[in-house]
Amino acid sequence: MIGSLVRRELRGRYKGSFAGFLWNYINPLAQILVYILVFDVIFESNLDYFYVYLIVGLMPWNMLSSTIVQSSGCIFAQADMVKKIYFPREVLVLSVATSQLVNFLISYLVAFIIVLFSGMGVNLGLIVLYLPLIIIIEYIFMLGLSLILAAVDVYFRDMEYITGVVTMIWVWLTPIMYSTEGLPDALLAILQLNPMTHIIEAYHAVLYYKVAPNMVPLGILALSALVFLAVAEFIFIKLEQHFAEEL
Question: How far is CA 64 from CA 38, 42, 57, 124, 194, in A?
Fold first, then answer.
């Protein structure tokens, strides 16, 4: 069922559009060009190859933000199916997260090609060893968050809109357009509380700095993400009992 829903999502997202699946590349590239204009041309970022730094971090962020925003309304969007057919409701959230993961993997090929031809070079050993692990950790974290948001949205419809606002603020608390080097200790301490800080820094470490990511915070985040997913599933099951009545 998950596979069927993922295929439907991937096929139907750009059905009837002229560019079709190319929008997976056009949208993030347009966003990247705007950020490059603002942060590299107008404000003159002190990061070498700023566009590479930006691309490497922005695409994983887009996967998370798109997943949680779309997941927060996925139960309500499938209200007819939820009320008429019994199936594990988690499937709806899993299908959203998995389709976004597939889109990310496809679009991240662009990031890899840009890094490859930027002149910075790549470390294939680090990529093979660490990149799949980082992606899995991010997937587990965003799946747990999506389960909670999807369940709460059934009872509190404003959650979908609140999620959109929170992601707009959250992106600026994540080192995507800037580096954490040289930041005041107080601000750095706040950023370290952000799980996405460690995930984005891990992407930057492997693809931009070409070094192994700091495994201490990444390992703690991995364990925390697994615990968080278990808690999210528990909350989802509790709230799921009255989905049909609320819808």
Answer: 23, 28, 11, 25, 13
CA distances (Å), 1 to each of 75, 91, 239, 243, in order? 15, 7, 22, 20
- Asked if 56 and 111 count as a contact pair (C-beta separation under 8 A), the reply is yes
Q: Contact 210/142 with Cβ under 8 angstroms?
A: no
16, 45, 61, 65, 96 from 7: Cα distances, Å = 16, 40, 23, 21, 11
CA distances from 120 to 48, 101, 115, 176 (A): 10, 26, 7, 18
Task: Decide if 97 contacts 146 (C-beta within 8 A).
Answer: yes
Contact criterion met (CB below 8 Å) for 228 and 138? no
The string of DSSP codes covering 219-235 is: HHHHHHHHHHHHHHHHH
150 in Cβ contact with 236 (< 8 Å) = yes
**Buried/exposed code over 166-175 (b: 16+ C-beta within 10 A; e: otherwise):** ebeebbeebb
Whole-number Å distance between alpha carbons of 138 and 105: 13
Predicted pLDDT at 57: 92
- pTM (2 decimals)? 0.88
Residue written as token pair 């706040």? 190
Q: What are the per-10-residue average pLDDT scores of the chain (247 residues)?
A: 78 61 68 74 74 90 93 84 82 91 86 82 90 96 95 88 92 91 87 94 94 93 96 93 76
CA distances from 14 to 23, 74, 100, 166, 169 (A): 8, 18, 14, 26, 28
Tokens of 243: 């989905």
